[in-house]
Design a protein that fits this description.
GO terms for molecular function: gap junction channel activity. Belongs to the connexin family. It is a multi-pass membrane protein. The chain is mainly α and about 240 residues long. Helices cover about 70% and strands about 5% of the residues. It contains eight helices and three strands; from the N terminus they run ααβααααββαα. It has a three-stranded antiparallel β-sheet with strand order 1-3-2, with helices on one face. α1 packs antiparallel against α2. The chain is elongated, with a radius of gyration of 27 Å. The C terminus is likely disordered.
């Protein structure tokens, strides 16, 4: 997988993110993508080759490995990283849509006109798109954590498993290679995922709180302006009637 391509795409998300979003992006690349590429893939590279069972029955070792490891940790984490980063592209696409509308508006009405004060400012539809992307990312994170725990019944890898699946002649003992090292990496990746979930939740509350504060501020400004100019609306009514 070309992780540089993914990094190039997500770097465009950084300039439209809040402080929590920038921290999330740093955690994803430093503590998840880099660890995944540099170390985790090598730890699981010999996973099936060094899965030993105390039997010579043909096919027993492969069947037991498939039974206890239906989905590799590496492939599951790769899917998780792809799924949790893709919703961020919704924001980039929405900003690109705004910029295209801005370009067409200026071409029609002149270069001095503006449709948006700032196409990347999170208000209106872009605010909802950003908020929805956070909910989707959080849902994917929690779902993959649940799937990982559901498949292996724990985040800790055992040193020995017992298998009696056909074609094994009886109950055989199978041994996992480097279980302690794999357990450490599993807990590290799970911890990084939990940190990302917490950052997403903090950003959701931050966006909602900022929105509420802005709406209250606009309401107070509107109320104060009406107190200062109480007859503005009536004058407008009179002018409209006379015209």
């Amino acid at each position: 997988m070309d992780w540089k391509f993914l990094q190039g795409l997500l770097s465009g998300v950084n300039k439209y993110s809040t402080a929590f979003g920038r921290i999330w992006l740093s955690v994803v690349f430093v503590f998840r993508v880099l660890v995944f590429v540099v170390a985790a893939e090598r730890v699981w590279s010999d996973d099936q080759g060094h899965f030993d069972c105390n039997t010579r029955q043909p096919g027993c070792t492969n069947i037991c490995y498939d039974y206890f490891f239906p989905v590799s940790h590496i492939r599951l984490w790769a899917l998780q990283l792809i799924f949790v980063t893709c919703p961020s592209f919704m924001v980039v696409l929405h900003v690109a849509y705004r910029e295209e509308r801005e370009r067409k508006y200026r071409a029609k009405h002149g270069e001095n006109t503006r449709l948006y004060d700032n196409p990347g400012q999170k208000h209106g539809g872009l605010w909802w798109t950003y908020l929805m992307s956070l909910f989707i990312k959080t849902t994917f994170e929690v779902t993959f954590l649940y799937v990982l725990h559901y498949i292996y019944n724990s985040f800790k890898l055992p040193r020995k498993v017992q298998c009696d699946v056909s074609p094994c002649p009886n109950l055989v003992d199978c041994y996992i290679s480097r279980p302690t090292e794999k357990t450490i990496f599993t807990y590290f990746m799970v911890g990084a995922s939990v940190v990302c979930v917490v950052l997403n939740i903090c950003e959701i509350f931050y966006l909602i709180a900022s929105r509420v504060v802005n709406l209250k501020h606009r309401g107070s400004i509107h109320t104060s302006s009406r107190k200062i100019h109480p007859g503005t609306d009536c004058d407008g009514c009179k002018s409209s009637l006379t015209s």
